[in-house]
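subagent[fold] <- orchestrator: predict structure for attached chain, return tokens only, no commentary.
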Amino acid sequence: MKVSGIIVEYNPFHNGHLYHIEKCRELTDPDVLIAVCTGNYNQRGEISIIDKFEKTEAALKFGVDLVVELPYVFTVQNAYVFGDHAVRILNQLKCDHLVFGSETDNLEELQKYAQLEIDVTRLKQLMHDGNSYPKSYGLLSSFLYPNDILAVSYLKALAKIDIIPVSIQRTNDYHSQDMDIISSATAIRKALKEGKDVSEATPLSFEDPVYTSDLYPYLRRLLLTTDKKDLEKIFLVSEGIESLLKENAEKYADYEDFISHCISRRYTRSRIQRILLHIANQIKEEDVERLPEENYIRVLGFNQTGQKYLRSIKEDTKIITQFKNIPESYKKIEWKTSLLYSTLKKDPQAYLKNSGVR
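subagent[fold] -> orchestrator:
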């Protein structure tokens, strides 16, 4: 049986993602297509505009057979942690191929970057000179498009295992705000927030969209009322960034004003947003350090093909379909993050009941 995998965020699902699924099937002709999907939060520190169950429904409707979740603690991380753990899950699920999009669509070139031995001292010096981490990495490797960093993270993880990488050309610029038949998720979120029609770019309808900025009133109060010493205990908080966050929270009532004044050559928007999510969810450094190696796979949904495949591998893999069966240390984190996300929904209790948290 041939099994292919994709790693997705669907923030939200759009025509470019549909193209990704179709190309994956065209290029690898799988008997089973598996998506490792982020939950209610995304790698760049954004809150997902649609929840994990809406993502799952879309994936299954448009060609995926099995959807599994990348845990929060590995989602809201840098590209290399994110990519490594997503690939681990696909390996546990016995995938033969991983199909991903890249801007260069040059697999040989990307694999060269993946093989680079990074000079950490030089990297730190570049950052000390005022360059962001992504730019510093790019300077070390001579050339990297921003959206290829994830592709390189997948290839680094794949070097340890037998999954075959397949690269396809990205259909748009991740950061583009232009609306078209193939539009970026960024453009679609912006258009939705402005009340514009997005039906040309996505097959989904949006009854209860959630935006990252919706969290700011709560987050601002939290930053203003929490001691620096307590913020220092939060996961990924380092280098005195807690002082910057507190200072700007006091100055700016608008989320974009706050973020723009936190961004610098040292701190990228994504890094700041990841830290803010951990603060909002009260994820402490010690909570993450104490986590055992993940040895389970959380299933979000499947069709008949996916269900049949799960049955075929259940003896070799710890498959979990219910929230209550997640290992306790991971469940505590998923519980907190689910509760926070629910407060941004129109009907928090209905969401929590549907998610199995209550």
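orchestrator: received. Logging for downstream: The longest helix spans residues 328-342. The chain has a mean pLDDT of 90.
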